[in-house]
Amino acid sequence: MSTWVKRIGAVALFGLAASLPVAPIRALEGAESAAVQDKAIVSPAFKTPRAALQAGLEDFRSGASDSAVAALKYAAAGGETLAQWKLATIYAAGQGVPHDDLKAYEYFSQIIEGFDEDNPNWRDRSIVSNAFVSIATYSLNGIAQSKVKPDPARALALFKYAAANFGDATAQYSLARMYLDGAGGDKDSRQGVRWLYLAADKGHVQAQALLGQMLFTGDEGLRPQRARALMWLTLAREAALDSAKDQWIIDAYEKSLAAATETERQTALTYLEDHLKRRN
C-alpha cells in the first residue's frame, strides 16, 4: 500500500493548519484490474516496458491507435506511470478506443496507488497530480452503471490532497467549490474563498470568474471590492472561449462591467497592470 493511502499529513494554508482525512483507494469489488487484464492479453513484444512506452507514444502520434494501445498496455502493466496516464486519458476521451470511464478510473487508480509520498518521483509530479484530481472527480460524480458510486467525502479528501501537496489549481478550485457548497462535509465559506484565491492566482479561469463574481456582489460574507472583482473577471474573460461552456464567464464580466462606475473601471485597470507585472 502506498504511503499516501496510509496517511495524509496536515498542511498549512495562510498560517492555518488543516488536518487532511485519510481516503484510501478502494478497489472495485469483483472486477479485475486493468493491469491484470493487460498482462493476460498483451504479448511481450518489447524488450522493456520503457521501450513499449516509447513505441506506444510514437504509434499514437502517427494515428496507429490499435498498436499504440497494445504497446501502452504492456508498458502500463510494467509499471510505466506515463503509460498508465496516457491510457487513462485515452479511455476518458474515447481517443481511438470506445469511451470507457471505468477503464480510465482503473488506470488513474494505478497511478495514485503506486505513488510513494515519502520517496516521490518528481518527474511524474504533474501526472500524479492529474490522477488525484481525476479520481476525485470520478468519486464526486460516480460512474454510471458501475461500482463507482458518488462519494463526496472521498472526493473532498482527494481534492484537498492534490491542492495542498501538489498545488494543483484545478484541485484548489474544485475544493473551493465543495467547501462553498457544503459538499462532502460542512459548508466552510472561509476555506472555500481561500482555496479560490489560490486557484485564481495560478490563472485558473473558472476560479478567477467565480472569485470576481463573489467580490463584486459581496457573496459568502466577503466585503465587496468591485474594482478588484472586475480585475479578476477581466482576466477570466480574456482567457474564456466563446462557447457554451464559458458563456457564464462572459455574462458575468459584461454584467459587472456595465454596473461598475468609471472610477472602478480605471482602478481595475491599475490592479490588472500590477497583477500582470507580478506574474511576469
Automatic annotation (TrEMBL):
InterPro entries: Sel1-like, Sel1_AlgK, TPR-like_helical_dom_sf. Gene3D superfamilies: Tetratricopeptide repeat domain (1.25.40.10). The keyword Ribosomal protein does not apply. Keywords: Signal. Residues 1-27 form the signal peptide. The keyword Signal applies. Pfam families: Sel1 (PF08238). It comes from the Bacteria. This is Sel1 domain protein repeat-containing protein.
